[in-house]
Amino acid sequence: MFTTLPKKILLLLFIFALNAGLLNSLTLITFFHQPVTHMTGNVSLLATDLYFASYSHLIFLIFVIIAFMMGTILSGFILGTSDFKLEANYGYLLSVELTCVICCLISAMLDLSSLVIIFATLSAGIQNSLLSSYKGINIRTTHLTGVFTDLGLAIGLKLRRVNVPIQRFTLNLAILAGFITGCLLSIPLLKYLSHLAFIGPTILILFLCSSYWFKFFSHSTDQTNK
């Protein structure tokens, strides 16, 4: 059931998707040409590596997939729900994601490519589960397959003159715009900062994490004073 989406939620989705696009482009361009925000291609590569007996890369891909899964498991364990609520658990999880991105930055500075990929994938797994549902709306901010699917279905329904809530478009367009913006920003960041480019997603998640904790404590104080 699609409901009215607050502008703050759309902005949050945009920033999350921007971070995912930025992380994915940075790892694709600089480290092994490895995607970290979606696992479909990595699972396909597993079969290729197995067929051609590329066992070292096969083992690495297994660790990448496990890292993504660990991120989602961690999200489920800490949050205890898939629907967004203003709770401290979201702050804890954002803090964990921030730690992962900082580890990406440090690993990149030390030229530890494998660790960059692992920490980036762990971060993506956390983020993809962090805001997976809002008032019954399923959300994915780290990859675009679902976005294009949902937009295509919505357009097809519109062509059949079926009533489609505008929120279905605004939600997916916010994610799409954010992801593309992140991809575009990765180029100048790499050009001018090289491996320090990971300071971009670090600043983004630091902003989200600090903003969330500020909002949470402000809300808690207001509730206490009532």
Automatic annotation (TrEMBL):
Alphabetized Pfam families for the sequence: DUF1275
InterPro entries documented for this protein: DUF1275 (IPR010699)
Top-rank taxon, per record: Bacteria
Name of the protein in its database record: DUF1275 domain-containing protein
